[in-house]
Amino acid sequence: MMNQFAIPRQPRNPDCADSMSLAERKLAAFFEAVKELYGSELAELSAEEWLRELEATDDLPASTPEWQTLTGKASLWLANRVDALSLTTEFATTKEETCVFS
Q1: Which residue spans within 1-102 are E strands per DSSP?
Q2: 80 falls within a domain
Q3: Where on the phi/psi map is residue 10: left (φ > 0), alpha (ψ -120 to 50), or beta?
Q4: How does pLDDT run across 50-84, given as a tens digit for each residue?
Q5: Which of the ends of the chain has fewer CB neighbours closer than 10 A, N or C?
Q6: Is residue 50 part of a domain?
């Protein structure tokens, strides 16, 4: 599935090829970590969010802290999504437990 996610920019010059390769590796690592923890569906959604965060930047991040910030923003989205799913599941379970049929 990762092949469907492509970094949405072309390098401004040939020297940016290394940066593009780094971006692809960062995205792949993020995707695989989320997939391992939460499954393919959330991994795909999280990768899309990661790409949206990348698109929102003026240029490719140039340092490790900049990449960490970008990934952190996508991770925050993921945390909110997991929290919302958890609340939905908890509510559904509680509702099922309180319904008693005679």
Answers
A1: none
A2: yes
A3: beta
A4: 999 999 998 888 888 999 999 999 999 999 999 88
A5: C
A6: yes
Q: Is the pLDDT of residue 1 over 60?
A: no
Q: Report if residue 18 sits inside a domain.
A: no
Is residue 27 a contact partner of residue 70, using CB atoms and an 8 Å limit?
no
Look up residue 88 and give its two tokens: 């939905």
Q: What pTM value is reported for the model?
A: 0.69
Provide the domain limits for residue 54. Answer: 24-58+65-97
- What end-to-end distance do the CA atoms of the chain give, in Å? 48
The answer to whether residue 75 is domain-embedded is yes
Mean pLDDT computed over 42-57:
94
